[in-house]
Amino acid sequence: MTTPAIDSTDADGTADTAGPAGVGMPPEAPEALRPHAEDAFAEELKALAAADDRPRPARWRLSPWAVATYLLGGTLPDGTVITPKYVGPRRIVEVAVTTLATDRALLLLGVPGTAKTWVSEHLAAAVSGDSTLLVQGTAGTPEEAIRYGWNYAQLLAHGPSREALVPSPVMRAMAEGMTARVEELTRIPADVQDTLITILSEKTLPIPELGQECQAVSGFNLIATANDRDRGVNDLSSALRRRFNTVVLPLPATPEDEVDIVSRRVEQLGRSLDLPGGAEAVDEIRRVVTVFRELRSGVTEDGRTKLKSPSGTLSTAEAISVVTGGLALASHFGDGVLRPGDVAAGILGAVVRDPAADRVIWQEYLETVVRERDGWKDFYRACREVTA
Ligand SMILES: Nc1ncnc2c1ncn2[C@@H]1O[C@H](COP(=O)(O)OP(=O)(O)O)[C@@H](O)[C@H]1O
Ligand SMILES: [Mg+2]
Predict the structure, then answer these.
(1) Coil, strand or helix: which one is 205?
(2) Residue 300: is its pLDDT beyond 50?
(3) How far is the CA of 197 from the centre of ligand 1 (A)?
(4) Which intervals of the chain are annotated as region Disordered (predicted)?
(5) How far apart are the C-alpha atoms of 200 and 243, rounded to whole Å?
(6) What is the mean pLDDT of the segment spanning 367-377?
(7) Residue 26 Cα, ligand 1 centroid: separation in angstroms?
(8) Cβ(280)–Cβ(330) below 8 Å
(9) Burial 21-31 (b: 16+ CB within 10 A, else e)
(10) Hey, where are the domains in the chain?
(11) What is the DSSP string of 310-353?
(12) Positive or negative CA dihedral for 365, 366, 370, 371?
């Protein structure tokens, strides 16, 4: 690659010879707003690799056992604590990791907010040490995003050649024996999806323009995620589905699990946003989770009152952002302690997606459930204030 010849002199007229990052930048690279999993958890991955004496599949950084431990958490013989990234059934993680060591690709399926993207990123980080070989699926994803494109300047100057070819993340993963990721596979038009069939069954990517091919090196595999609710938008063809092992990620089984997930993530996010710790926030977190679970399932926790469910998904991920938003409010405009007034607006925003129908459902819930509940007076008042 060549650097374009703009900005070659500095403001004071000296030539910029230090390269794009050399001038006007702090000596150390600034901290990324959201580091990749392999960077954020580099210490844990290093400790796991050191403690890991089990066999590793070709080009894997860790053994399947160590990858599962990285995801589920645990304590190593030397005392290093591995934080849990995924809270859920152990078996799901074991099947997912094992799949990646076979010749079948992994499809993570589930409703929004069940940690499909999150698990996919951490799997790629633990298996290949790189979670960035990523294709984001949309209705407009072209075949080039999965195969390769061309650098037109090079193509015009030198004709089709390996130098003019711009490999996709999938092609790079094939060539280097790494884990590729495809997000939201079922949003990609069906004919473009089918590009993956040859890649996954023959483990090769033909390059007819050059009369060549790119053969996958061992270690290559692919993780795709797909949303349950997109079913029917662009269904996976049966030919493609056969190349995948499907693992369904469930919603958190119990309120305790969900409170645990939200608390952990809020704690992590809070640290990177310099917000106060979420430790005293656990009562409020429990309340947000209760409201979300009750409205999602259409029945109160004691099973006595049936409720209507609003149109939003009210996912764990949304609960996390409601609480994080509340903590930000509390720290900038309150005394730093999360109170009902800090989460009420966020909850309302998550519940009332359709301004007519959802609002009625929310008001009914407020008056019949929230109002009557012991210890929920402040919360009721805060909700009334933002709902009015
Ligand atoms: N079971 C779970 N264990 C750990 N984190 C979870 C779980 N479910 C949801 N999350 C959290 O929810 C957030 C959003 O998940 P994401 O991967 O974007 O969902 P999806 O891709 O399924 O829509 C992540 O920050 C993740 O930490
Ligand atoms: Mg996702």
Answers:
(1) strand
(2) yes
(3) 28
(4) 1-35
(5) 6
(6) 94
(7) 34
(8) no
(9) eebeeeeeeee
(10) 37-248, 255-387
(11) PSS---HHHHHHHHHHHHHHHHHHSSSS--HHHHHHHHHHHH-S
(12) negative
Give the relative orientation of helices 357-365 and 340-351 as an angle to the nearest 10 degrees: 140
For the CA of 83, the nearest ligand: 1
* CA-nearest residue, atom 6 of ligand 1: 115
| Ligand 1 center to 324 CA (angstroms) | 14
| Atom from ligand 1 closest to the CA of residue 265 | 27
Which ligand minimizes its atom distance to the CA of 137? 2
Residue ranges lining ligand 1, Cβ < 6 Å: 86-88, 110, 112-118, 225, 252, 261, 265, 316-317, 320
% of residues, the chain, pLDDT over 70: 90
CA of 225 to the centre of ligand 2 (A): 7
- pLDDT confidence band for 235 (50 / 70 / 90): confident
Closest ligand 1 atom, residue 257 Cα: 1
pLDDT (tens digit, 9 = 90+) per residue, 315-368? 999 999 999 999 999 889 988 888 999 999 999 999 999 888 999 999 999 999
Beta strands in the chain (DSSP E): 74-75, 81-82, 105-110, 134-136, 148-150, 165-167, 179-183, 204-207, 212-215, 221-227, 244-248
What's the predicted TM-score (pTM) here? 0.88
Distance of CA 54 from the midpoint of ligand 1 (Å) = 29
Helix (H, G, I), strand (E, B) or coil at 387: helix
Q: Which CATH number fits domain 37-248: 1.20.120.430, 1.10.510.10, 3.40.50.300, 3.90.226.10?
A: 3.40.50.300
- What is the distance between the alpha carbons of residues 42 and 262, in angstroms, rounded to a whole number? 23
How much is the pLDDT for 122? 98
